[in-house]
Amino acid sequence: MNATSSHDTGPRAVLSARGLRRDFSGFVAVRDVDLDVRHGMVHALIGPNGAGKTTVFNLLTKFLQPTAGSITLDGHDITRATPAKVAQMGVVRSFQISATFPHLTVLDNVRVALQRPNGLASQFWRSLSVLDRLTPRAEELLRMVGLDDARHGLAADLSYGRKRVLEIATTLALDPKVLLLDEPMAGMGHEDVGTISKLVKSIAADRAVLMVEHNLSVVADIADWVTVLQRGEIIAAGDYETVSKDANVREAYMGSEHA
Predict the structure, then answer these.
(1) In the chain, how many domains are there?
(2) Please, which residues bridge with residue 76 across strands?
């Protein structure tokens, strides 16, 4: 077990991994990774390209099975569970919800996403009018993310940044215990980055958030805990101030503007 990979104090760990390993035809992509993703906190997973961040995400969401190690959700072993099962249990990855339906309104995008937790997923073929009872919760989610002013507009007409906000709203419709965000700020301008950063921080108030993010300024601003991967192994973990001063981390990022 990597003693530096997880913090032993603080809020309860919702999603945990111990000794996580994944081999691909003799190549070790992830080795001996320990993580605790805690309720009410933003946990950032960072590292240079090829560090194994996406593989860890795929292992935690069960798109890949680990070669070794264990994963637990609220103390329940989910190591061999299917992606659909862990999603039902509350582990939701941002891309699991399809990108928005461009020719539906913003409100209807969220109402469609609300079908599953409200037992209406099998009724997708029915008229959208059957979803009217989901409207109050959909409007509440849109207010939460700052899209209530656009609720009757088409998703296709939103700016890129606001489309990403809508995707987060549809993800929140599943009421996840753990939300995994894969580079939520990718391709965004400065203003949109600020908006999404505030949104991610607010989302983490009542759930656990794990995100892969290359924008280290964002990580510095909103992450409560940072785990740094290099070549599939954890080389440092702690708050941003601690890991940014770590010699191994500085070497891993050597040559970047953040080194």
Answers:
(1) 2
(2) 73
Tell me: do 151 and 206 sit in the same domain.
no
> With pLDDT > 70 as the criterion, what percentage of the chain qualifies?
86
Determine the straight-line distance between the first and last CA of the chain, rounded to whole angstroms. 28
User: DSSP letter string over 57-68?
Assistant: HHHHTTSS--SE
Q: Using the Cα atoms of residue 117, residue 121, residue 123 and residue 126 in order, give the sign of their dihedral.
A: positive
Q: Give the domain range for residue 161.
A: 98-173
pLDDT at 11: 84
Span 195-209, pLDDT tens digits: 999 999 999 999 999
Of 109, 138, 173, the position where a domain reaches its end is: 173
- What b-and-e string marks burial along 100-111, b requiring 16 or more CB atoms within 10 Å of the CB? bbeebbbbbbbb
69 and 142, same domain (yes or no): no
Q: What is the CA radius of gyration of the chain?
A: 19
CA 95, CA 89: separation in Å to the nearest integer?
A: 17
Alpha carbon 89 to chain centroid, angstroms: 15
